[in-house]
């Protein structure tokens, strides 16, 4: 270890792949908040983060905390969450992104992301060494996907494309027809669609929200969602992954795993069992010849056995760790467990009696532990997992329609205010009126401004001079644009946009 000034240099460091992709909404907002003028007594207007929970108009439905309280005090839902059919619970949509992107990573693979988009996808792909390619969204067509660029980018190593609908950061909602075209394009290219629907159902314009999953018969779809936005509880970190694949393409596309499971001959298994059984016999017999070791039960399965260590018979051995450390230094020992007289019975056969989650992998039976392929299987013919949904099931089931309509009315009004006030600020252009989510992309017209270099400079100076926080577009992949969150109280939004207008007049280029 390197020594600096008489001290050893620390031997750890951050993941360089993750650090290289560390642009995040939270990180940029933190810098903007730190750049505020502390002498400005006006309240800060947060138009950069889609978290309206501090405002009374955006309180969640009482059904949500009541359901959590009921589930908590029932003591029935303190276990790990189950997986039901094609629904997989995650710790928020962020973990859903991490899981999906990570499992797709393989040598030479690439994935298609929208530009502008959500930076978490890029960061996860970089960390997983999955090549990210970017297709454009066309602002003049309501931020529709440029399907020609999708076809130009895809090749034989492309695994999937990501769409975000309703859009973060653009605020648009894709039409049924455009989603159909996306599905047909993906199917033609042989890739599946990952549909980020965190803002699902938060559509308040002329285009109704259409879940991408309805196109499952055309192309396999993974839908990522969460309770965060529709129920205004982003801190609860409850998300999900849903598969929509009625044709079983995901199952058919198991690649090597499907072929291994289907075509491995029985004599391979019997040969492996015979080999391991013989090794177990050798282990058990030889242990009898070593006084300091006792094998209380002859191995009958797996590849391991528990052996007692009789320390009083040994000199200079403190404990089992010391024994193993010294044995490792002095000897090389390989042990293998095997099968005995008791046949293996999968626990899943008792699913009619009790719900069972079975965890397995290809590692041991096929002797390929480095392949890292595993599975989770539910055995629950009585549907107990589905009945035991806890708080989330109650929230989904009992939230009244008037809660949704109230939130949509509030957000629709905020979108109207944003769009109208933007027209009064010459240096900003909103190419498409927001129809969904809680955010909008706005173009920044730099030639009209004096002393402003780019979108980051604009946002930093706006934070210092007006205590208004907006997100620079470069954060979401579109330089010299702004992402403005309009999910705040209407009065705060009017105040914030008024301050941006004053900022423009102060920095407007003199004619």
TrEMBL record:
CDD domains: AAT_like
Aminotransferase class I/classII large domain sequence ranges: 82-289, 352-500
UniProt key word Transcription: no
Protein name per its UniProtKB record: Aminotransferase tat2
Cofactor(s) in the UniProt record: pyridoxal 5'-phosphate
Signal peptide: none
InterPro entries from the UniProt entry: Aminotransferase_I/II_large (IPR004839), PyrdxlP-dep_Trfase (IPR015424), PyrdxlP-dep_Trfase_major (IPR015421), PyrdxlP-dep_Trfase_small (IPR015422), TyrNic_aminoTrfase (IPR005958)
Region (Disordered): 39-59
Molecular function via GO: L-tyrosine-2-oxoglutarate transaminase activity; pyridoxal phosphate binding
GO biological process: one example: L-tyrosine catabolic process
Gene3D superfamilies: Aspartate Aminotransferase, domain 1 (3.90.1150.10), Type I PLP-dependent aspartate aminotransferase-like (Major domain) (3.40.640.10)
Pfam families assigned to the protein according to its UniProt record, in alphabetical order: Aminotran_1_2
UniProt keywords, alphabetically: Aminotransferase, Pyridoxal phosphate, Transferase
Family of the protein in this entry: Belongs to the class-I pyridoxal-phosphate-dependent aminotransferase family.
Organism from which the protein derives: Quercus suber (Cork oak)
N6-(pyridoxal phosphate)lysine PTM sites in chain numbering: 229
């Amino acid at each position: 270890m390197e020594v600096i000034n008489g001290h050893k240099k620390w031997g750890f460091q951050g993941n360089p792949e993750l650090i290289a992709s560390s642009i995040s909404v939270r990180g940029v907002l933190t810098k903007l908040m730190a750049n505020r003028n502390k002498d400005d007594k006006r309240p800060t207007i947060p138009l950069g983060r889609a978290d309206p929970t501090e405002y009374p108009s955006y309180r969640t439905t009482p059904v949500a905390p009541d359901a959590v309280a009921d589930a908590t005090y029932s003591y029935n839902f303190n276990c790990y969450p189950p997986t039901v059919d094609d629904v997989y619970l995650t710790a928020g949509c962020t973990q859903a992104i991490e899981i999906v992107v990570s499992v797709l990573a393989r040598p030479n693979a690439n994935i298609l992301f929208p530009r502008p988009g959500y930076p978490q996808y890029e960061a996860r792909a970089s960390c997983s060494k999955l090549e990210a390619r970017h297709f454009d969204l066309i602002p003049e067509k309501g931020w529709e996907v440029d399907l020609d660029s999708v076809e130009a980018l895809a090749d034989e190593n492309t695994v999937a494309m990501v769409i975000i609908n309703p859009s973060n950061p653009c605020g648009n909602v894709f039409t049924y027809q455009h989603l159909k075209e996306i599905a047909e394009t993906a199917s033609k290219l042989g890739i599946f669609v990952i549909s980020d629907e965190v803002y699902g159902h938060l559509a308040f314009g002329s285009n109704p929200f259409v879940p991408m999953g309805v196109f499952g018969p055309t192309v396999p779809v993974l839908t990522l969602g969460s309770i965060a936005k529709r129920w205004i509880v982003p801190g609860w970190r409850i998300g999900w992954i849903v598969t929509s694949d009625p044709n079983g393409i995901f199952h058919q596309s198991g690649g090597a795993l499907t072929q291994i499971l289907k075509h491995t001959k029985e004599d391979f298994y019997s040969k492996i069992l015979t080999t391991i059984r013989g090794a177990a016999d050798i282990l058990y017999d030889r242990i009898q010849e070593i006084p300091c070791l006792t094998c209380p039960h002859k191995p009958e399965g797996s590849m391991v056995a528990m052996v007692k260590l009789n320390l009083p018979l040994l000199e200079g051995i403190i404990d089992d760790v010391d024994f193993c450390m010294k044995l490792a230094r002095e000897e090389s020992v390989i042990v293998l467990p095997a099968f005995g007289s008791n046949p293996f019975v999968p626990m899943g056969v008792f699913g009619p009696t009790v719900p069972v989650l079975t965890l397995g992998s290809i590692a041991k039976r096929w002797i390929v532990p480095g392949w890292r392929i595993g599975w989770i299987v539910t055995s629950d013919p009585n549907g107990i997992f589905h009945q035991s949904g806890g708080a989330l099931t109650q929230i989904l089931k009992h939230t009244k329609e008037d809660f949704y309509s109230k939130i949509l009315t509030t957000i629709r009004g905020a979108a109207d205010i944003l769009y109208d006030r933007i027209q009064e600020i010459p240096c900003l252009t909103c190419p498409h009126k927001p129809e969904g989510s809680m955010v909008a992309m706005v173009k920044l017209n730099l030639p009209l401004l004096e002393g402003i270099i780019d979108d980051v400079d604009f946002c930093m100076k706006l934070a210092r001079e007006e205590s208004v926080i907006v997100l620079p577009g470069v954060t979401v992949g579109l330089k010299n644009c702004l992402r403005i969150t309009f999910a705040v109280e209407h009065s705060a939004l009017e105040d914030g946009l008024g301050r941006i207008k004053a900022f423009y007049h102060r920095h407007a280029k003199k004619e």
